[in-house]
Amino acid sequence: IDYTAIVLAAGQGKRMKAGKNKQFLLLDDKPLIIHTLSVFEKDEWCREIVLVINEREKESMQSLLDAHSFKTVIRLTAGGKERQDSVYQGLKSVSNKTIPVFIHDGARPFVEQSHLHELAKETMEHEAALLAVPVTDTIKQRHGNKLTTLDRTTLWAAQTPQSFSYPLILEAHEQAEQAGYTGTDDASLVERMGRDVKVVQGSYDNMKLTTPEDKAKALSHLSHKNNKAG
Ligand code: CTP
Ligand code: MG
């Protein structure tokens, strides 16, 4: 099943406090964004990557890509102020509008190919799918000192990739823009259209690098992986 991947790298990485966009952070001598792109590069189902970047980082990103000589076509596109703006710009740059489109955070380098393939299959059938994991914490809803405890068995932590038929996610973004609605992920824009989104259970390893503590976690995960690979 062929698909297009939109990989988002146009943020600032403020919470990582690295003094630069966290996408350029070195993990085991390789920048974070290269780890993430490599997953899609290795997946034969991925036909094209749209890499959404900050216009000001175009040269540095291009030289990174040149140094790693990817086989998959990588199309660079300028992002926007918020993540949702960046996704919308990415969508407009997709060349094949007949195959599913995956939307993925550049800051999630550990997504597994088997999960990409499950997503692709579900997207062919249901038009919208996402990776998620069951919530392990007890989640309280707080209104002042009045607490309620949510039923954990119904709670899922959303990850990326989130995958869609191209026309559906384009329409979801257009409708959100018209309504001035900003969601925290792409699936929420489809949900507000009243459409179902299929949940594919992913892995707790598919973390997003957000804070400095996450860097240590990522390095430990990488050394674990390298040991297993021998
Ligand atoms: N992103 C993007 N365009 C934006 C904002 C975010 O492409 N305007 C991307 C980031 O580069 C990241 C992903 O969306 O890969 C998830 O966002 P997040 O983890 O919040 O990254 P940043 O926005 O870069 O970090 P922060 O919020 O700490 O500044
Ligand atoms: Mg952000």
Write the layout of secondary structure elements.
Elements: E1 3-8, E2 26-27, E3 30-31, H1 32-42, E4 46-53, H2 58-68, E5 73-78, H3 83-92, E6 101-105, H4 113-126, E7 128-134, E8 140-143, E9 146-149, E10 156-164, H5 166-179, H6 187-191, E11 198-201, H7 212-229
Helix pairs in contact: 3-5
Short description:
By secondary structure, this protein is α/β, with parallel strands linked by helices. It has helices at residues 32-42, 58-68, 83-92, 113-126, 166-179, 187-191, 212-229; strands at 3-8, 26-27, 30-31, 46-53, 73-78, 101-105, 128-134, 140-143, 146-149, 156-164, 198-201. It has seven helices and eleven strands.
